[in-house]
Design a protein that fits this description.
alpha+beta, five-stranded mixed beta sheet, 403 residues, Cytochrome p450
Length: 403
Amino acid sequence: MGLPTAESLPSHVPAELVRDVDFAGDAEVLADPYLAFDRLRDDADILWSPKLGGHWIVLAAGLVREAFQTPDAFSSYPTGVPPMTEFWPRKLIPEELDGDEHTRYRRLLSPFFSPSAIRPMADSVRKRARDLISAVSNHDEIEFVRAVALPLPSSVFLDLFGLPVEQADVFTSWTEQLLHSGDPQVSTAAGQSVVEYLLGLIAERRDEPRDDLISALTTAVVDGQPLTTEEVLDTAFLLFIAGLDTVTSQLGVVFYHLARDGELQRRLRADADLIPAAVEELLRAYPIVPPARTLTRDYTLGGVQMRKGDTVLLATSAASRDPQEYQNPREVDVDRPAVSTTAFGLGPHRCLGSHLARQELVIVVQLMIEMMPEFELAPGFEPKWHTAGNVWGIDALRLRFRR
């Protein structure tokens, strides 16, 4: 991250707010994105970066909340920095819809992700997590992402979609290439593979519906009209990439912290009832999704004049660790009074899958604490972060167990 620059600076952007930061590629960000964004927030509440097409970075907790909760000004389309529009020509449903349109399409999916729908899945999630951990229970060292964090949420999601679990490696490979390759050609090719697969699946479910989410979409009706194939595809594509990436990334980040915090591990081993609260605190300290918004009109945020069409990155990690909101915000404190988190967003676009994600996170922490001895980072391990694609995560996590 460099000094302020006025290169290609829009006329309404004050030069003193410009920072030459590429959140997807700067070495400082990739070394530790949370610390890097803490430093940006300590510098200013709002900054402007000329990189990745030029965009605002909103860092203060109160201003991030305001943007989330003012969807008429901060449109969710397009949601990425840079946007996915270069290889996806339409809006992803329902994430990139706004207002009443968003509400109508989100209503179709809500029953599948409500607490009452998610709760009965717990036994199945627990069994799969137990099987995955049992498979490595006698190892002194494991790569946690490939052993647990990737296969568990993938299998849960594939069940919802009615997809064959034995093809999970193919699906997760497409998702990784699409979101984290950093190569536009690789991302586009992977996206096309997903599209071709989903189109075939949609056609199959139209002919022979099953008891799964894709079948429900093919028979769904909005405003008295059945969803078109394009509408089903736009919805399925969003769920595909979200379901196969976000929980995996969050698990990796959570266990990266736990591996460096032996005291917290010991507290959780002594009192497993603390685990749900610990997961909430870890979500606060380490949110992985900094979404983007696009202004539909001129807007003044925190005294900064923004213009219609500006792209705005909502730095959820900086907001969740804002010292104006939280005491000792970088510390993971299980005894911290209940606080809101930006990990799943706020307002009408709050993450639809938050209940399922929480359930998976709690179960994996419970079983790793119950079934495995205390763990730490393997000797010599240094995390390789990815921050492109609007989801932060660690490519691999090598854990060593203290036996």
